[in-house]
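Ticket #4471: structure output looks truncated?

Reporter: J.K.
Steps to reproduce: submitted the chain below (306 residues) through the standard prediction queue, then opened the result file.
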Amino acid sequence: MRTGLVRQKENSSGRWGVRVRAGLAVLTAAAIASGCASGESAKAPVEPAPGQQQAERAKQAKKRAAEQRAAKVAAVKRWGLAKMPLTPPKPPAKKPSISTRRGFEVAGHKKLPPVFTTIPTKDKVVFLTIDDGAEKDPELLRMMSELKIPYTAFLSDYLVKEDYGYFKKMQDRGVVLNNHTLNHRYLPGLSYEQQKREICGMQDVIEKRYGKRPELFRPPYGNYNGDTLRAAKSCGIKAVPLWNAEAFVDRMDWREWDRDLHPGDIILTHFRGKEDWKGTMPDMIRQMMKTVTDKGYAVARLEDYL
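Returned output as attached by the reporter:
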């Protein structure tokens, strides 16, 4: 009996031992598998070699350039330009030194903001500036944005106040908004204090509406005297860009005898529409860009050179 009992326990223990050993084997295998999986997931992703990274970046840059080129080609076609606008060079690392143009001086001009019509540069670039603010054509905003043509605005409050929001959209697209006085009056006919109110008053408006006081000022009609420049300086103005050519919807007018563009020339036009011109602002841009491109010039950003 004792032997049989013992054998029964041995047999029972053998079956239990088999079960235990089998369970342990399963647990061990699961633990090993789990450990392997955990180890694999913990491994950092394999980084491409430096050469591969450079090749991939170059590939992506080439792809972006092709996409941008295709978008610009489509914009040129959509807006009816005769030719693809030329691309300006990179902005100069050192900005040119600006001085008052000969013949444009006033007494004590060396201590006053310089008055000039051309930026001294060898780059074959010109600069587009638009004055006043009478016409508020949404198509102009779209056109210039899609074609990526830079320009600078000189604003008069008596016109801008009809729709400050239009020029905020312009600013949001990267256009710098500058001072063209409150009421576009003939400044040399005013006293110093009156001129200062016109100029400083517009500084205040632009700061309030658009967040920054301008550093550039253009006197209405291009007319000024010593009081104008002294008042402008007291209002925080650093420079007084005039122009060397003027763009209309059907022609260009020239300051120089050779009736041509020169490196660094500033081009003037106005916010005008069919009430004043035989066409729209996009019509004027098409005409101007044909002249500029045909003569081998690119339109650059004025502030990049000042």
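Triage note (M.O.): checked the attachment and the full token line is present. Strands lie at 115-116, 125-132, 152-155, 176-179, 240-241, 245-247, 252-254, 266-270, 298-300.
Status: closed, working as intended.
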